[in-house]
TrEMBL record:
Signal peptide: none annotated. InterPro entries: Hemerythrin-like (IPR012312). It comes from Aspergillus fumigatiaffinis. Residues 43-157 form the Hemerythrin-like domain. Pfam families: Hemerythrin. This is Hemerythrin-like domain-containing protein.
Length: 198
């Protein structure tokens, strides 16, 4: 099994970035990139950081009893999860395919999990009023699925990718993910982020 997880031998080792981002980097993005570079977060660190932010919003939603507060965290959870999902699919999963021998198969499973564990349930959840009796059961069901997916990414897929990348490649991929996330619409209340993810 381990033998199939080796890094692909390829002459082109540059981490690619969505073409829509090239030549279109604002000062804000540049500042973020500089910060990210300064902190030197590798891709696994950045993914784990995203996951822990998403988990924090989930915990705030289920521990709150104030509907207004829950709606505020619902919007933040929705936006963070949607843009993380978009970023992974545009930047990280292509890297899995590129650098790992069995990357295509890993990505096929990850995309399938995104579809069922994230997109379908998130679309239902984002439009739900916090006073709806289905509100908490819906987010809990979403979280149960998502938690498994997150664990799988952190301990297997992204860990394998991290092992296959040089430090520089990992840092560049991490910056590319952060830049891509900045371009995902933030008007989550109207469903922009989820629509982008779906
Ligand atoms: Fe994912
Ligand atoms: Fe993830």
């Amino acid at each position: 099994m381990a033998a199939t997880h080796g890094r692909k031998s390829t002459a082109d080792s540059n981490v690619s970035e969505p073409h829509v981002l090239r030549g279109n980097i604002s000062h804000q993005v540049q500042a973020f990139t500089d910060w990210s570079q300064a902190r030197r977060f590798r891709i696994l660190d950045t993914i784990k950081h995203d996951h822990s932010e998403i988990k924090s919003f989930y915990e705030l939603i289920v521990s709150s009893t104030d509907p207004e507060e829950q709606t505020k965290y619902q919007n933040q959870f929705t936006w963070e999860l949607a843009r993380h999902t978009v970023g992974e699919e545009l930047v990280v999963y292509p890297a899995l395919e590129k650098y790992l021998d069995d990357g295509k198969e890993l990505v096929r499973k990850d995309r399938a999990e995104h579809q069922t564990a994230v997109k379908e349930k998130l679309k239902t959840f984002q439009d739900m009023r916090s006073t709806d009796p289905r509100f908490i059961p819906t987010i809990q069901s979403l979280w149960d699925d998502l938690q498994e997916h997150i664990h799988h990414e952190e301990t297997e897929d992204i860990q394998l990718l991290e092992d296959a990348l040089s430090e520089q490649e990992s840092l560049e991929l991490s910056q590319s993910l952060n830049r891509t996330k900045l371009f995902v619409p933030s008007h989550c209340a109207s469903g922009g982020a989820v629509d982008a993810a779906v």
